[in-house]
Write a structure and sequence with these properties.
This is Clavesin-1-like Protein. One of its GO terms (molecular function) is phosphatidylinositol bisphosphate binding. This protein is an alpha/beta fold. It folds into 2 domains: about 10-75, no CATH class; about 75-260, CRAL-TRIO lipid binding domain (Phosphatidylinositol Transfer Protein Sec14p, 3-Layer(aba) Sandwich), CATH 3.40.525.10. Helices cover about 50% and strands about 10% of the residues. The protein is built from 14 helices and 5 strands. It has helices spanning about 10-15, 20-30, 40-50, 55-70, 70-75, 85-90, 125-140, 155-160, 165-180, 195-200, 210-215, 225-230, 245-260, 260-275, and strands at about 90-95, 105-115, 145-150, 180-190, 215. Helix 2 (about 20-30) crosses helix 3 (about 40-50), helix 4 (about 55-70) packs antiparallel against helix 9 and helix 4 (about 55-70) crosses helix 14 (about 260-275).
C-alpha cells in the first residue's frame, strides 16, 4: 500500500538528514517481520523521529502498528465529512503552525478550546484530531521535531469528567513509543489547578523523559514572556499578538488540509488493517 506523500525520500537524503544505507537497513529488517513493507518516505519519518538510530526505529515501527491496530477509535474513520469530526473541530482549535523554526526543521502544533462547555468536549475525537495534525506537518516537508503549545484557558473541573483512563493511556503510549515525530517541548499556557489535576492523572502513564518536556506557564505570563520562553510571535495566532491569522482562520485551514488528506488517511488505514488481518 503506497501512501500519497508529497515529498521524496531522496530529498531528505540530499539534505543530509538521513541516508540510503539506513533506509535499506530498515527495509531489510522489515522483510524479516510480519509488518507491511513500508515505502522509503515512511521509513524516513521513523528514522528522523529516532535521530537515525535503527534499533530505536525498529521499536517505534513495532509500537506504531501495534497501537494503531489496537486503537481504531483514535486512528480510524478520519474523514472530515464525518459529523463527529466536524463538531469536534468547532470545539477545539488544532493547527500545524505554517511558520517553522530551526531552519524549517521544527514544527509547532497549537491547540486551544473554542467552546468551553464541557458537554460538547469529546476527548477521544480530540485525540484523533491531534494525531491527524501530524500528517499535515509531514505531508510535504517532514520536520525533524515538534513543539506543542496548548492553551488551557476555558478548561474547567467538569472537563476532567470527560477523561477516560484507557484512552489517556493509549494516547500517551503512542506519544512515547510510536509517534514518528520527535517531541522537543510541550508548553502549556494558562496552566492552573485544572492542569495540575489533569497532569496528575496522566503522569501515571508517563516516562520521566516526557514529564521533563512539559513546561507549565501561569496565566500571569506576559506575551513578551511567552515569546521568549515558548515560541516567537511569528509562530502564534493574531489573538496572541502573533503574526499569523486568527485562530478561527487557522482552524478553517486545518479542516481544508484534513479534507485534502482524505486519500492518505484511507490508504494508511488500509495499511494498518492489512497488518491486523495478517
Amino acid at each position: 500500500m503506497v501512501l500519497p506523500y508529497e515529498y521524496k525520500a531522496q530529498t531528505i537524503v540530499d539534505e543530509g538528514r538521513t541516508s540510503h544505507a539506513l533506509i535499506q537497513e530498515v527495509k531489510n529488517w522489515l522483510s524479516t517481520t510480519d509488518f507491511p513493507q513500508l515505502q522509503d518516505e515512511s521509513i524516513v519519518l521513523f528514522l528522523l523521529s529516532c535521530q537515525n538510530n535503527v534499533e530505536e526505529t525498529q521499536k517505534t515501527i513495532r509500537a506504531f502498528f501495534k497501537i494503531k491496530s489496537e486503537s481504531p477509535d483514535i486512528f480510524q474513520n478520519r474523514d472530515m465529512d464525518d459529523e463527529v469530526l466536524q463538531r469536534a473541530m468547532k470545539v477545539v482549535t488544532c493547527v500545524s503552525i505554517p511558520t517553522r523554526l530551526s531552519n524549517n526543521q521544527t514544527v509547532i502544533h497549537f491547540f486551544k478550546l473554542n467552546d468551553t462547555n464541557y458537554r460538547n468536549f469529546d476527548l477521544i475525537t480530540s485525540m484523533k484530531l491531534a494525531f491527524m495534525v501530524i500528517d499535515i506537518s509531514q505531508r510535504r516537508n517532514p520536520p525533524s521535531d515538534l513543539i506543542v503549545v496548548i492553551d488551557m484557558k476555558g478548561a474547567t473541573l467538569m472537563h476532567l469528567t470527560c477523561i477516560k483512563l484507557g484512552a489517556i493511556k493509549k494516547f500517551i503510549d503512542f506519544l512515547q513509543e510510536a509517534m514518528p515525530l520527535r517531541i522537543q517541548q510541550i508548553h502549556v499556557l494558562n496552566a492552573n489547578y485544572i492542569f495540575d489535576k489533569a497532569l496528575a492523572i496522566g503522569r501515571v502513564f508517563m516516562k520521566n523523559e516526557l514529564m521533563e518536556m512539559i513546561h507549565a506557564h501561569s496565566p500571569k505570563l506576559s506575551m513578551d514572556e511567552i515569546y521568549e520562553k515558548c515560541v516567537p510571535a511569528a509562530c502564534l495566532p493574531k489573538e496572541y499578538g502573533g503574526e499569523l491569522p486568527t485562530c478561527e482562520e487557522l482552524n478553517r485551514r486545518t479542516v481544508e488540509q484534513f479534507r485534502e488528506l482524505k486519500k492518505f488517511f484511507e490508504a494508511e488505514e488500509m495499511l494498518i488493517s492489512s497488518f491486523k488481518s495478517s
